[in-house]
Amino acid sequence: MSEAKPATADDQLIMPLCAIFRRFLKRQGLKFTTERAKILDAVLAKPGIFEADELLQEMRAADQRVSKATIYRTLKHLMEAKIISEVLIDSRQAHYRLSFGKEPKGHLVCVETNQIIEFSAAELTDMRNRLCKEHGFDPVSHRFVIYGISPEAQKAEQAEEVQEG
Amino acid sequence: MSEAKPATADDQLIMPLCAIFRRFLKRQGLKFTTERAKILDAVLAKPGIFEADELLQEMRAADQRVSKATIYRTLKHLMEAKIISEVLIDSRQAHYRLSFGKEPKGHLVCVETNQIIEFSAAELTDMRNRLCKEHGFDPVSHRFVIYGISPEAQKAEQAEEVQEG
DNA sequence: CTTGCTGCAAAAGTTTTGCACACGT
DNA sequence: ACGTGTGCAAAACTTTTGCAGCAAG
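^ Those are the sequences you sent over. The predicted structure of the assembly is below.
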């Protein structure tokens, strides 16, 4: 409520993640470079799902230029550090989301508009653990993606049908 | 039980699917070519999940040569005809499975060995429909993929740890 | 100062496309 | 015959890699 920008929940999130990444890198004998810091910042600024190229474009727009190669290399490290994780939306391109400290999410994807809605589904984790146990697997993660047609796309479809008929 | 090969469950499956594809093509004003028939046969011969290039190699080995481009074009039609569907295993390459008349399957993937186990999970369809309804979506399909470490890979890991320690 | 990192451009891998010719209906 | 389909090779796209110079610890 003060004039000066107060620390937000986001700030509280940003500080530790930067530290966590730093610690991860140190443990692996890797370096915390300005490029890696910039990329982590860009990732933290993304509210939902993102792609490598999207990150590149947005960083260029913000004059935080980093090469494509470095983005790909850093995304890999961020995944190893469990800060982000891959979301399988389509098989053409990799999609990521900030996942540190978040429960795994399900995704509802509109096949017409590509709109993506995240939802929680804690019961999936139980189902995962049960199935892993049945097959002797050690669970790592899981993905649940639902494909459907969004209300908006449904309206568009109906409009088309009227024209056709 | 006779000497002549009796009709198998597979034969019963193959006949209608070929007919179904044919009908689908006719409806779209497309042609049922020998290449499309050969590709459908190759797909029907696959018990589980397959990739485009795998199909190409196997067809070459069986002297049923078709071009890469035709395989990709035909896989697209088979998906439109709902005979196969895409399985999201990784974001590098498309994976498919014969899906006609089968209930949607979940997949348990070993992150070390890439072994894939299919499992049924009817409750997922209910969950899907419930979530679609909540968001006003018209359900199309869904995917549930679990990542874990298979028993074999676990043993290999333990062996490594012993060596390291 | 040593080791790892970056950017660039080229390579690699999958999927798509343009075009001339061939084939199903 | 007509309109589609096929094969080929090239293009398109995402991701990876080799290398020379640069920067972090």
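Residues 42 and 55 of chain A are 7 Å apart (CA to CA). The helical segments of chain A are 9-27, 34-44, 52-61, 68-80, 122-135, 151-164.

Shout if you want it in another format.
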